[in-house]
Amino acid sequence: MNNSTVSVPWFEKEKRVFKNPLNHHAYIFEGVEGIGKTVFTLEIAKGFLCNSLPGAEACNQCQSCRLFDQFNHPDFYLIKPEEDKKQISINQIRKLQEPLYESSFLGSNKVFIINPLEKMSREASDSFLKNLEEPPENSIFLLISHRYQTLPLTIKSRAIKVNMNKPDNKQIKTWLNLQTDHKSKIETALLLSKGKPFVAAEMVNFEIDDLRLDFIKDISELIKTGNNLLEVSEQWPKDPMTMLLRLEWMSDLLMDCLRHRFLPGQNLTFQDSDTISSYLSQHFESDNFFYLLEKTNSCWNLFNSDTNLRADYQLQSLLVDWIESVGLAR
């Protein structure tokens, strides 16, 4: 596989903007995780490094393009958290200083991607700010952010924000059909991924149907008896990715309870958990759902920010809130 193996056709409008010569040195590509911002930014980086075409358009034939596709371009730098680290350290930013102020090897631009930008430590962010304030000639910063609102204003004010929106379901479905042989799983993945094509692509490659059934079984037992509290608290955190997905499904279930309450008869709920959400909406107050929604989303944010707190303890606390607020055996 090389850097040009996967493409994101739903960002063609954004890509056209970069085909013209641009005068700025820093761009923040902002949007939810899982929609293809990284792939898009790599395409833009390749274009900025190409020696043959203007702007950020790549010819795919010159030496620069070939080196980029082979992950071997001397003027391209990708900065992300090191293995087993949760943040981008100040040492990683300091290592950029030498190549940043040297001439490019191939006589064109030098491109630096930081992914994700919000993972920089406070010290790293302060150090990087100096580079944004006094950018060397022909150095371009492509900055990826999943949580733009958390970035320091000092950095946001020195970069152009590029909004990256979710594609529509038709675009995702067309793309998924080209990415996988598991055609039977596409509809389920499309429904559960909520407009995030790369999340959907991951879903079709593991047993998403079984995972969803297990989730409904677990949450049903938790609401009915609460007897599986410790088991769920221990099992779910063993796979961080699927735990975040389960927390999203918990939020979806609460939203469905509110839809039953305020938008009855519009068929806007997840059908496989509709029995649960319909029952809860009839037997508990809306304030309970709003309270749990806030708690569940806070828990999701906590885990998504790579907290050092023990996941099983935090999840157990959330599940206790669920039992106390909507449990049938309370």
Structure described in brief:
With 330 residues, the chain is an alpha/beta fold.
In total, the number of strands is 5
Could you spell the SSE succession in H and E letters? HEHHEHHEHEHEHHHHHHHHH
Report the biggest beta sheet as strand number plus sense, adding barrel if it closes.
5 strands, parallel
Our count of helices gives: 16
CATH superfamily of the largest domain: P-loop containing nucleotide triphosphate hydrolases
The assigned CATH architecture of the largest domain is 3-Layer(aba) Sandwich
Mean pLDDT: 91
Distance between the termini: 54 Å
Total discrete domains: 3
Q: Hey, roughly how much beta strand do the residues contain?
A: 5-15%
Question: Can you give keywords for this protein?
Answer:
alpha/beta; 330 residues; disordered N terminus; 16 helices; Rossmann fold; Zinc Finger, Delta Prime, domain 3
Could you please describe the fold and organization of this structure?
By secondary structure, this protein is an alpha/beta fold. It has helices at residues 12-17, 37-49, 63-69, 90-94, 97-101, 122-133, 153-156, 169-179, 186-193, 197-203, 208-224, 229-235, 240-262, 274-283, 286-304, 311-326; strands at 26-30, 76-79, 110-114, 139-145, 160-163. Strands 2-3-4-1-5 form a five-stranded parallel β-sheet, with helices on one face. Strand 3 (110-114), helix 6 (122-133) and strand 4 (139-145) form a beta-alpha-beta unit. Helix 9 (186-193) crosses helix 10, helix 12 packs antiparallel against helix 16 (311-326) and helix 13 crosses helix 14. It starts with 11 loop residues before the first helix and ends with a helix. Mean pLDDT is 91; it is low at 1-5.
